[in-house]
Amino acid sequence: MAVAEGAEPISLKEAERPRSTPIADAWRLFRRNKASLVALGTIITIVFIAITASLWTRLGLLDARTGVDAMHTINPVNQAQQDSYPDPGVCARDNQDRNPYWCGWLSGDALASVQDTYCFRDEPVADQRQWCYLLGGDSQGKDWLTQTVYGAQVSLSVGFLGATMSLIVGLIYGVTAGFYGGRIDNLMMRIVDFMYGIPYLVLVILLQVFFTEIAREYQDQERGGVVGFVLDLNKDMGGLLFLFIALGSLSWIGMARLARGQVLSYREKEFVEAARAVGASNRRIIFVHLLPNIMGPLIVSETLAIPGYIFTEAFLSFIGLGVQPGTPSWGAMISEVRTRGGFFSNRHILLVPSIALVMTTLAFNFLGDGLRDALDPRLRGT
Amino acid sequence: MSQAMPSAQTLPQRADGKERRVLVEVTDLKKHFPIRSGILIQREVAAVKAVDGVSFQIFQGETLGLVGESGCGKSTTGRTILQLYRPTSGSVKFEGQEISTLKGEELRKMRRKMQMVFQDPYASLNPRMSVGRIVAEPLVVHNIGNRKERDERVAELLELVGLNPYFVNRYPHEFSGGQRQRIGLARSLALNPSFIVADEPISALDVSIQAQVVNLLQRLQNELGLTYLFIAHDLSMVRHLCDRVAVMYLGKIVEIAESEELYTNPLHPYTQALLSAVPVPDPVVEERRQRIILKGDVPSPINPPKGCNFNTRCPVAVDVCYDQDPELVEVLPDHWVACHRVI
Ligand SMILES: Nc1ncnc2c1ncn2[C@@H]1O[C@H](COP(=O)(O)OP(=O)(O)OP(=O)(O)O)[C@@H](O)[C@H]1O
Ligand SMILES: [Mg+2]
Q1: Does B125 sit within 8 Å of A271, measured CB to CB?
Q2: Closest Cβ–Cβ partner in A7, A190, A273 for B163
Q3: In a mutational test of the pocket of ligand 1, which residue from B75, B230, B253 has the highest number of ligand atoms less than 8 Å from its CB?
Q4: ipTM of this complex
Q5: Looking at CA atoms only, how far is residue A191 from chain B in angstroms?
Q6: Do residues A173 and A256 lie in contact, with contact meaning Cβ atoms separated by under 8 Å?
Q7: How far apart are CA B74 and CA B89, in angstroms?
Q8: Which of A249, B117, B194, B289 has the most CB atoms at less than 10 Å from its CB?
């Protein structure tokens, strides 16, 4: 078929021009911002370490006992080190009775004899293993490096889950209001306006107090039904479930407003009208035409909200309303400064978790900045 | 309001005796946008009467121009005909079938036959979709063909509108305004429609490119036998493209006639004023051209004046114009005017 009148011939230069897809463009723009590249690297590293924490533990690099079981009976190698706060770099003999850390790896008949020799299920041997505190420890001898790594799991899951939940709920709410408009929109947005007036932190604290109270109430009773299941689940999650609920209670409303505003600005665009004119369904219009266009600002805003979730969790854990006692969390670690000698004589107590907290939140802030540049439609093609 | 409209039977013949078939028939069409107010329970306090009772016919294979100032309801008329806005009242018939009451699947089927081309070439293409996906969307929505057949059809459509099919994987921002308008045209042609509403398709383009797109529209009309409703806000562009022209003012049609007739013999004072603003290429005629400057602004469509809508600006208005709404009547063969002073 002959090319019709007015058609541009393809020059060689044109054919060689690099592809310009939305994703390639975004990545090109993101790479320009060096700070956010570093931030992305930092976050990937932290996420990697947090996810593989149990692997490091198995390799013996982290203390196998975290959380409530993490209290050691300290027997410092260096006798000059008498107080109960091991300094960074100090090694100590750990004389708590337990099986060697590798016992858990072994299984099967072939290894039964090895297990019988070294691993005692009923009658553990005294393990005179030497333990080195790379980043020090607290008054009870909990290893601070181990606690920090496991604390990252808590902070990151609060950050990511908080962001994901608030994005999903806010998106569904805001898109519904914006897309259907009229009375539905009006009613839904009045509810949001009302909730906007509620002080966030106060509500979160009250919810946490309420959950703690319920947990205490049910402590001695025979649990059953939904309440029992939820309480058990929360306990298994170290108190994170209730924390997610409390954090998520209001965090979605900002997202709902943003999503609605975005939908309103795109709903009347001519390409949406064009899709209607060919008979596209509402579902297709929402998923194919609206969502891909409105996601950019929502993702940026949610990324920038992650430090907020992490801080709130740390704050709650600091005042004892966050994770359950014993669950490693940076906020709970920082609260150790309140024990005697925690503030002045043992700086690592405060510094280690604080640096982890600041690095993580800064990284998310820079990442959000970079994403904003990368997803800004006005910068495309520059 | 009732406008004296001829029924389809009385108009099978054109002035020159040629047969013509009515493709689209619009009768007393109204589109009012409600204005609501209230914090929780919203009441309707007023309405924008964007289209307030228009009637006209569009014949198979012709181009009907729809002109008027900004805000007079041209786009709303086009969109209401296509059922992108549901009419407040009135009827729209396509090939004799009433479509304003169609719903769901029936309406979707009907949409294959009538399409729209938009004014803004930048807003009318989804920036997140490649050209291939944009042009194939109508086929996907209507479940036509498999992947390979659709790709072939897309290539064919791009060639039809004068774009190189090599561009299918490119995104809209890589194209110029004129090229984007061609992409939009390819999309609207994908389902083989017989009727296209072109809403100021060239207003946003450079003058040098406008002619290209107009020529393309004409070529497509000849090749595919399309019928156009061509919306424009100035009369000069419409003249050589349209067979007939309808002039709109504040939600109503004030005059419809064949293009040449309208330009040489405008009867409504509003049409005369619009035409007096169009420069004439002949210097002698241009010298003698008298500009009729209309006083005042267009009244608000929320609260149009009593009587004739044009009475606030009309240079020749008399008492009856402030009291009674003029009907659109055929004063000359195929020349319809809504004015008390013309008869
Ligand atoms: N969705 C809507 N909701 C409320 N009012 C509307 C809506 N669409 C159009 N209007 C109003 O209806 C009137 C007619 O608008 P319309 O877009 O049809 O004018 P137009 O003749 O196409 O103008 P233009 O030349 O500027 O495109 C205007 O007063 C406009 O404000
Ligand atoms: Mg318009």
Answers
A1: yes
A2: A7
A3: B75
A4: 0.86
A5: 10
A6: yes
A7: 17
A8: B117
Which residues of chain A have a CB within 8 Å of the CB of B212? 6
Could you state, in order of their start, the residue ranges of all structural domains in chain B? Answer: 1-36+68-101+231-343
End-to-end CA distance of chain A: 36
pTM of model > 0.95: no
Per CB-CB distance under 8 Å, the chain A contacts of B185 are none
CB neighbourhood size of B83 (10 A): 21
> E strands within A254-329?
none
Burial class (CB in 10 A: 0-12, 13-18, 19+), B1: exposed
Element housing A245 (H / E): helix A240-267
* Residue ranges around ligand 1 (CB below 6 Å): B 33, 48, 50, 68, 70-76, 233, 301
pLDDT in tens, chain A (382 residues): 334 444 455 444 555 565 677 788 888 888 888 899 999 999 999 999 999 888 877 766 676 665 555 555 555 444 444 457 777 766 665 545 444 555 555 555 545 555 555 555 444 444 445 566 777 777 777 778 888 888 899 899 999 988 999 999 999 999 999 999 888 898 999 999 999 898 988 999 999 899 888 888 877 776 677 778 888 888 888 888 888 888 888 889 999 999 999 999 999 899 999 999 999 999 999 999 999 999 989 999 999 999 999 999 999 999 888 888 878 889 988 888 877 666 777 788 888 899 999 999 999 999 999 998 888 766 665 5
CB contacts, 8 Å: B125 with chain A: 271
Task: Give the residue whose CA is nearest to atom 29 of ligand 1.
Answer: B71
User: If we measure between CA atoms, which residue out of A96, A95, A72, A97 comes closest to residue A85?
Assistant: A72
Tokens 């004739």 locate to: B308
Residue A274 is nearest to which of B36, B159, B187, comparing CB atoms?
Answer: B187
